[in-house]
Hints:
Blueprint: E1 7-9, E2 15-17, E3 22-29, E4 32-38, E5 48-49, E6 52-54, H1 61-73, E7 80-89, E8 94-102, E9 115-122, H2 133-142, E10 149-154, H3 155-158, H4 161-169, E11 171-172, E12 187-188, E13 191-196, H5 199-206, E14 211-215, H6 218-222
Parallel strand pairs: 3-8, 10-13, 10-14
Antiparallel strand pairs: 1-2, 3-4, 3-6, 4-5, 4-9, 7-8, 7-12, 11-12
The structure holds zinc ion.
Amino acid sequence: MSSGDGWTICAAGHRHWGLFGAAGLLLVDEDRVVLQHRAPWTHQGDTWGIPGGARDSHEDAVTAALREAREEAHLSPDDVDPIGLYVDDHQGWSYTTVVARTTRTVRPYAANAESVSVRWHAAADVAALRLHPGFASSWARLRDVPPPLFLVVGDAAADDPLLERLRRTGVEAARLPKGMVGGGLTRLLPHVVYAGSLGSSVAAGYASRGQVMLAVQPEDLKLLA
Ligand SMILES: [Zn+2]
């Protein structure tokens, strides 16, 4: 029994599993996503959704989603690169979807009794499946995956405590500088790159891999936090 196990009621009067909210992992590889066929005995079962479950009291959403993905779908944290979050906030309860890309070839499978099967699906086919209602309501936003975010930091910003917070909880999509996109996500999780005194040339080197932000001074981080 984990500290988050239990039912709760959100402001809209729905009954939800997870005293501290819940989190799940949406793993994306080009135009495919990993879905879990939930066992019929589970809440709103016999539907397709993503591996996920209740958060423990001490867990952030990414930690919880990665733990659940390992327990339910045999996905290792080494296989996935989290790029952002979508928070479905019901007031008093929330479900956080952690969107991640694969770092290598991944063959997920049902790892416990909560799943009938876990496998790749073409993103184009997802809407036609019998989906878990929570996942169904988020899917339109989740399929709009933005390019990964690289936060290049110079010496003066490298030891700032805000950096760890941004790495863990992400940059709010609404705070992204003009010209950068959050897709359908609520927050983007930055990949922090330490550039020493070579900030702008290092930043230029990452431009082909995703969206790049440069933080030279601690003030640059404050704008994002
Ligand atoms: Zn609700």
